[in-house]
């Protein structure tokens, strides 16, 4: 599907056009604060009622692991063309061993009888256990010694009513298995296990974002927020059950304590009354498969950033009376809807930042913390900021292109060699990835495209910071910067004791909620706030985390931001699902 731009720049100078785009995509701190206030409103509406856009789905997970747990747990991840079976062995020292195998799901299985589909899922688990016999026979906290507990990641709409129970609402992603909708997905799977007399028990139904939180909690010793910033975006956090009014008639409400809530924050402000929408955002939304839905996700996730950028570039290509980009020429990549992938933006920014020429040979080195750096493939490490590259020069400033300088030989000659070299590297990426002829892309084009990519990605990272800040505020770990002393949380005189009891397998499972998990101030000391993240943007897009932290500082202040400890939460749908099975056993499933 091709698309055309409908933006008119007829009465503006080229520089005014660039200035206008820059203005539309630049977010001021005051706007970030207002967006956070609106975010908080939707959080509390969703906690109070079912059926809201920002659904605030209770997970019925009432605690998080601390890394001391041991045992063997299975995970089954169904969400598309393949299903995945994982075995996770918890070592009890914040480390684990993972074995996994993928199995293809045919179209016949997707559209046939549900019993046949779930029998296939059980067969796949059985095949995995045959080829990968468990390293240890069971979990030590399981009541039945020879039964393996399993967590199911089921990436389809369900109404979850308990940790190990959820009704299938509808199928998506090409699935339409008969006699499944309206039934409990956990029971369907367990019945299939039982038909085959397998010693496997499905004890938990898992969302991958909840799994990300649990995964990070296990490897770091504590975590209060799991967040996905990748193809899509979502967050799950630990909330007081007393703050979830819609659970009033559920047995979980009488137990109190804490529960992990899946926010579904990609649907924040679907009405677009607060989000800083531009004509480019409106064009993307209008031509998407779900107009007026997942509004927040369309501003910040990897699935959409390339398309927003493409709309901006098209507007400059089609500018009248004279084109402002690529001499008015388009390629299939630029002209086709979804043709420009967000990975191209990342490559453009990497080319701008690269301070040395990278050898194309692969040389591996392992640093002191065990991270592998591969020169020539993905030369990345994690020395501080997630995704930080040792070869970047840190120059990611928002450089508004100067049309007068970039449009004349004299102006180009006045550029310093380093700046010129950066533009030349970007130019080569555009020729390669946008499929232009070498002569169709000049340094001015390179400067404009790099600036556009930076604007779109920076806005996404700043808005991502809004979501994280809102969770810190909702859970009392920070205050708005104007309400407290530089954003530092002021302990309440009515604050509950520092040790909270969370219902578990043997009556109660004690976790140090206000210290290890929540990270609020205890005895005058500032505790760290654990945040686990996953997704291609936060892992690989240059300086995504740094910009997100800039947003946090502008909303809750530098003191609160400095206490936020962001770390990778690996494999929420696999490892996280196995850890959810662990939590189910702790809670006495």
UniProtKB/TrEMBL annotation:
It is an enzyme of class 2 (transferase). Keywords: ATP-binding, Glycolysis, Kinase, Nucleotide-binding, Transferase. PROSITE patterns: HEXOKINASE_2. SUPFAM superfamilies: Actin-like ATPase domain. InterPro entries: ATPase_NBD, Hexokinase, Hexokinase_C, Hexokinase_N. The keyword DNA-binding does not apply. Residues 225-356, 416-582 form the Hexokinase C-terminal domain. Residues 20-218 form the Hexokinase N-terminal domain. The keyword Nucleotide-binding applies. Its EC number is 2.7.1.-. Pfam families: Hexokinase_1 (PF00349), Hexokinase_2 (PF03727). Belongs to the hexokinase family. This is Phosphotransferase. It comes from Lentinula boryana.
């Amino acid at each position: 599907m091709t698309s055309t731009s409908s933006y008119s720049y007829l009465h503006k100078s080229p520089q005014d056009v660039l200035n206008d785009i820059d203005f539309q995509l630049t977010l001021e701190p005051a706007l970030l604060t207002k967006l956070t206030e609106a975010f908080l409103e939707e959080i509390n509406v969703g906690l109070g009622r079912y059926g809201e856009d920002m659904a605030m789905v209770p997970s019925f997970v009432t605690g998080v692991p601390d890394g001391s747990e041991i045992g063997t747990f299975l995970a089954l991840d169904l969400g598309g063309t393949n299903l995945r079976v994982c075995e996770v062995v918890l070592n009890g020292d914040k480390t684990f061993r993972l074995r996994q195998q993928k199995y293809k799901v045919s179209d016949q299985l997707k559209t046939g009888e549900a019993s046949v589909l779930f029998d296939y899922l059980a067969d796949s688990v059985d095949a995995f256990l045959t080829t990968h016999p468990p390293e240890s026979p069971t979990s030590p906290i399981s009541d039945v010694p020879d039964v393996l507990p399993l967590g199911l990641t089921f990436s389809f709409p369900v109404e979850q009513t308990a940790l190990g129970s959820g009704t299938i609402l509808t199928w998506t992603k090409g699935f339409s298995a008969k006699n499944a909708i309206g039934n409990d997905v956990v029971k369907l799977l367990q019945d299939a296990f039982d038909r085959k007399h397998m010693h496997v028990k499905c004890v938990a139904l898992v969302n991958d974002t909840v799994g990300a939180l649990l995964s990070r909690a296990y490897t770091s010793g504590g975590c209060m927020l799991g967040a996905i910033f990748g193809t899509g975006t979502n967050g799950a956090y630990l909330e007081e059950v007393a703050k979830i009014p819609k659970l009033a008639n559920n047995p979980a409400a009488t137990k109190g304590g804490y529960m992990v809530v899946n926010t579904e924050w990609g649907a924040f402000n679907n009405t677009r009354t607060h989000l800083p929408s531009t004509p480019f955002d409106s064009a993307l939304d209008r031509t998407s498969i779900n107009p007026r839905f997942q509004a927040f996700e369309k501003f910040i996730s990897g699935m959409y950033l390339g398309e927003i950028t493409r709309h901006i570039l098209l507007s400059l290509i089609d500018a009248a009376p004279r084109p402002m980009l690529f001499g008015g020429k388009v390629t299939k990549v630029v002209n086709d809807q979804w043709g420009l992938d967000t990975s191209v933006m990342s490559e453009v920014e990497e080319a701008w930042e690269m301070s040395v020429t990278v050898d194309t040979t692969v040389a591996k080195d392992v640093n002191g913390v065990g991270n592998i750096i591969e020169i020539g493939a993905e030369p990345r490490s994690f020395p501080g900021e997630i995704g930080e590259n040792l070869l970047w020069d840190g120059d990611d400033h928002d450089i508004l292109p100067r049309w007068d300088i970039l449009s004349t030989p004299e102006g180009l000659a006045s550029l310093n060699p380093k700046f010129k070299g950066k533009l030349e590297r970007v130019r080569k990426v555009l020729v390669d990835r946008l499929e232009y002829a070498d002569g169709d892309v000049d340094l001015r084009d390179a400067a404009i495209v790099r600036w556009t990519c930076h604007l779109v990605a920076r806005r996404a990272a700043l808005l991502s910071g809004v979501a994280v800040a809102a969770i810190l505020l909702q859970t009392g770990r920070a205050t708005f910067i104007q309400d407290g002393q530089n954003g530092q949380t002021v302990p309440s005189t009515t604050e509950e004791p520092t040790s909270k009891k969370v219902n578990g397998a043997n009556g109660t499972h004690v976790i140090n909620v206000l210290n290890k998990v929540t990270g609020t101030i205890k005895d005058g000391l500032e505790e760290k706030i654990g945040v686990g993240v996953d997704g291609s943007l936060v892992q690989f897009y240059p300086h995504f985390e740094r910009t997100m932290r800039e947003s946090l500082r502008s909303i809750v202040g530098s003191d609160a931001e400095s206490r936020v400890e962001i770390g990778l939460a690996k494999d929420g749908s696999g490892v996280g699902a196995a850890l959810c099975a662990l939590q189910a056993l702790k809670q006495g499933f």
